[in-house]
Structures are given as C-alpha cells and as structure tokens.
C-alpha cells in the first residue's frame, strides 16, 4: 500500500530535521497555554470582580491577548529571542517572513563564543520550525500581560490599559525574556528559569504591584467588600487555568520528552497540595472554607512550581505546595491587615471571609 502523502519523508513540509511528535506536542502545549488566557482568565476575571466591572475586566484580558500577538510578531519576539543588541535586549525585527518561520527553530538565534574562539553557549535547536516556537512564546508573553491585568481590575481605565499593554511588553517583558531565555547576560551566567517563574510570574507580580500602587486603591467600600459576581463561572475559569498549566510547564523542554512528563505531574501535585493547605488554613482560622481561597491556593501552587517543574522530584513538589499554600495565605489574610501599603494593592480576597 502506498504511503499517504502527509507521511512521505521528502516533502517540503517534512524536512529531515522535523520530529512530528515534538512539533505536535509543542503546538498542543501552546494551545493549552493560550486557553489559560482565552477563555480561562477572561472568564475568571469577569466572574471574580463585582458585576459593574465584569465586562471591563473581561475586555482587558481579551484586548491584551490580541494586542500582544500583533506586537509579538511585528517586533517583540526577536527583541526577546533574536540576535543580541545589548546584554539584556535583542534586535527587534518582524517574525513574519516565510523563510524565517519555516526554518528549524533555534534558541538563542546565534551561537556565542569566548574570545579564544571556543563555544560559550551553543544554540538549542528543537526538532520543529520557528513558527511553532514563535507561537509558543507568544502565549507566554500574553499570559504574563493578562496576569498583570489582575492587579488593576476594577481600578484602571480601559483606554489607559490599551496604551499600557504594548509599552510594557516592549520595554519590560522582552528585557526579562532575552536576559534569561534569549541569550542575554543571565542566560550566560547559567541562571535557570524552567518555565517562567522569573520571566513571567515574578515580572508580572512586581509590575502588577507597582501598577496598582500608582493607579491607586479601589474605593474603600470595594476594598471592604469585594464578592465575586459569579462563583460557578469563576471556578470554570480557574479550571481552564489549572488544566492549561500542563502545557505551560510541559512545553518548556521544547520536546515531548521525559522532562515534560515529570513537569506535568509535578505541576498538578503542587497545585493540589497548595489548594488543600490554603483551604485547611481557612477552616482553622476562619471556621469555614472559601471558594476564592481555594482558587488562590491553586494559583499560588501553580506559580510556585513553575521555575523548577521539570527539575525537582515529586516529593519536593509537595513541599513546595505546602509553602505556596501557607506563606501567601499568611501575607494576604494576616499581614495585609496590618499594612496600609498592602491594603492599597489588595486583590480579591480578604474581605470575602467576613
């Protein structure tokens, strides 16, 4: 029987270096990460705020997803992963040409050498085209922007947000991404950020805290009472976020290998442990569990495991989940009540336990 056309070895669409399994997993992982944002965080944000801010909050996430994609392919991908311009920034240029997108992926895009001519850092060359890598990294950039949006829900004008998104992406996100992942100075120092603990979560967290401080606090009545407008939809959005995280950490090795399998398992173990610890602390100190608390515990667990999901043992993922479910709980439920600064940047919990 003749070999089907799609499986013939020498077609232009099937070069010798292409591994269809790796390519299929990378596209799948990219889509899972995308689902975290669209519709995951769109639904979560619209549901977790008061009804009067639901549409605005959902649109902030929707707009960011679209705006980041266009900025990403026009200039930002190669600022984050292209040839070096500065030790912390790449040379920005479009990632749209066919010749560029169909060639074999490479990270960083150039080999770096010592002064004596020996290789300092070789390229990582996954077995799929640049198009798959550009799309995968876009979804990372998009969710970073949307996570940042969570800090200013219910307090930021949509037009200000529309201007803020491309500016922050260009002048902040690309710097961290290039420095750690794209061949910048931290990359050469050997700093490991498995799947965005620094590039994504630390940067979005610090930027969100800073943005919330400068935008200013919500009204006092809102800070004291901020119940979600739809708990069931909030849980649906949280579920999409949790399940999508398998692509987040599972796609980070750039291959469908053993590392990806361990990362997916550790991701879910840490998230579950963190959720249970947070819920248990709610019961012990407040006498009842909280759905919002469970969601926040899940999210802190997912964030905590991300920097090392594929490089730690599974028992360590449980320990990390215990820490991520208790330390943030203490800072949000206890410490923030004693700090006027934290109260000004308060997220969605706190008052819901009253």
TrEMBL record:
Membrane topology: Multi-pass membrane protein
Coiled-coil blocks: none
Protein name as annotated: Ammonium transporter AmtB-like domain-containing protein
Domain Ammonium transporter AmtB-like: 24-337
Cellular component terms per the entry's GO annotation: membrane
Keyword hit for Ubl conjugation: no
Key words, A-Z: Ammonia transport, Membrane, Transmembrane, Transmembrane helix, Transport
Pfam family, one: Ammonium_transp
Location in or out of the cell: Membrane
The organism of origin for this protein: Ilex paraguariensis
Highest taxon above the source species: Eukaryota
Membrane-crossing residue ranges in chain numbering: 24-46, 58-80, 133-153, 165-192, 198-216, 228-248, 260-279, 291-309, 315-335
Primary localization: membrane
Biological processes, Gene Ontology terms: ammonium transmembrane transport
Record family assignment: Belongs to the ammonia transporter channel (TC 1.A.11.2) family.
